[in-house]
Design goal:
seven-stranded parallel beta sheet; alpha/beta; eight-stranded parallel beta sheet; disordered N terminus; Rossmann fold; disordered C terminus; globular
Length: 425
């Protein structure tokens, strides 16, 4: 991307109605049919034609919109049309291990019937097995920046043959401190390459990254102006901190979710909620960053296979995990950042399906609720369950892992928190 203002366009599905309207290799069209992808989503209909032309693209899109296939399909088309080589032709950088596994799965699915090999490189797995795969030769590498940079430093990953580089969830990668690693990797990539950058938001750091490492990129915006999907109902409960778990238990019994993710802010809090829930039901497990990768993979596999109904998690699964059967999101703890709320809630209502999200708000968290509502440009509807009307109490450190809060008067039952708690930004 040059220093000039990038071309910005908002795309709709009107541009392409069917995949067979796209100039794709026949083997890829056959794999798309086998994957039962009938019609392109707006992101796919808008991004794929631009990517097939070979130019750089900045695509702004939320998760759950089909964006993974939107960059995998043109990448596979490029690989299918290029002479085979030993070193990778495509590199996809992602922020988390779970997303690396998911994206690799999409590559495998959409390359059915083709001689395409794909390796996922991420921490928590032995280097030896990844090195063996790279030595045998791979066409596409999916990886987290830290592990990819590790392989580059060891000489086990060579980037001289790259034709396409994809930065998926770019804002998330920058949020968690991967910017230096990303820049080191991009500086080692061939200058003559195509770069696709996908991000839910395009803040100034993303714009600077694009200007520095992309060439005359076209910026495509596929985000709804309201941020949150119309298919997701969003509610909140006002509840005292020490009664959150009892409310969670009652809410799960009332809702009987097809599948639900319960988000906690901390690893310790996640473990605590999981232990208490697992003493009452067997279809529950948890996932957080302190778990070994093998255990995390096992939990996510069980959840995808619907062997689990409830997954208690930190924001490690807040982005990029595509489990279309999630019907409920429960924010046991409000997230630290408003954007994390958007991505948590985006785990349900995926691909046009209906979903519902509930947030537990203590009387002291009125300001946080207001910030979320301003971020999504939507007021959450208050709900109550009999017997759980909030009463004044101090927040217990063992429940939140934060210092005890100063006592404040509770809102009257049936009403939202007082204005001075909700609107004082």
């Amino acid at each position: 991307m040059t220093n000039d203002q990038p071309k910005t366009e908002r795309q709709s599905i009107d541009s392409v109605q069917r995949f067979d309207e796209l100039p794709l290799d026949e083997s890829i069209l056959a794999a798309i049919v086998r994957a039962e992808y009938e019609h392109p989503t707006p992101v796919q209909a808008g991004l794929i034609p631009y990517a097939l032309r070979g130019g750089d693209v900045v695509g702004q899109a939320q998760t759950g919109t089909g964006k993974t296939a939107a960059f995998v399909i043109p990448l596979l088309d490029r690989v299918a049309r290029m002479p085979r080589q030993r070193n990778p032709q495509g590199l996809i950088l992602v922020p988390t291990r779970e997303l690396a596994v998911q994206v690799r799965g999409e590559v495998v699915k959409l390359s059915h019937g083709q001689r395409v090999s794909c390796a996922a490189l991420y921490g928590g797995k032995p280097l030896r097995g990844q090195i063996d795969k790279l030595e045998r030769g791979v066409d596409i590498v999916v990886g987290t920046p830290g592990r990819v940079l590790d392989h580059i430093g060891r000489g086990t990953l060579r980037l001289n043959g790259l034709n396409v580089v994809v930065l998926d969830e770019a804002d998330r990668m920058l949020d968690i401190g991967f910017r230096p690693d990303i820049e080191k990797i991009l500086r080692r990539c061939p200058r003559e390459r195509q770069t696709l950058l996908l991000s839910a938001t395009v803040p100034p750091p993303i714009q600077r990254l694009a200007r520095r490492y992309m060439q005359e990129a076209t910026e495509l915006n596929f985000c709804d102006t309201t941020v949150s999907a119309d298919t997701i109902e969003q509610f909140y409960f006002t509840v005292d901190a020490e009664r959150k778990f009892d409310l969670l238990d009652r809410l799960l019994k009332r809702e009987s979710p097809q599948q639900a993710i319960v988000f906690c802010r901390t690893k310790r809090g996640t473990e605590k909620v999981y232990r208490r829930l697992s003493s009452r039901r067997k279809d529950v497990d948890c996932i957080h960053g302190d778990m070994q990768q093998r255990a995390r993979d096992r939990v996510m596999a069980k959840f995808r296979e619907r062997k689990l109904t409830i997954l208690v998690a930190t924001d490690v699964v807040g982005r990029g995990i595509d489990v279309s059967t999630v019907s409920h999101i429960i924010n046991y703890d409000l997230p630290q950042f408003c954007d994390d709320y958007v991505h948590r809630v985006g785990r349900t209502g995926r691909m046009g399906r209906e979903g519902v999200a509930y947030s537990f708000v203590t009387p002291e968290e009125g300001n946080e609720l207001t910030r979320i509502e301003m971020r999504i440009n939507r007021l959450l509807e208050r709900q109550e369950i009999e017997g759980f009307e909030a009463v004044a109490s101090a927040v217990k450190p063992e429940d939140t892992e934060e210092p005890a809060a100063e006592k404040k008067p509770a809102p009257k039952p049936g009403r939202r928190p007082p204005k001075r708690y909700r609107r004082a930004l």
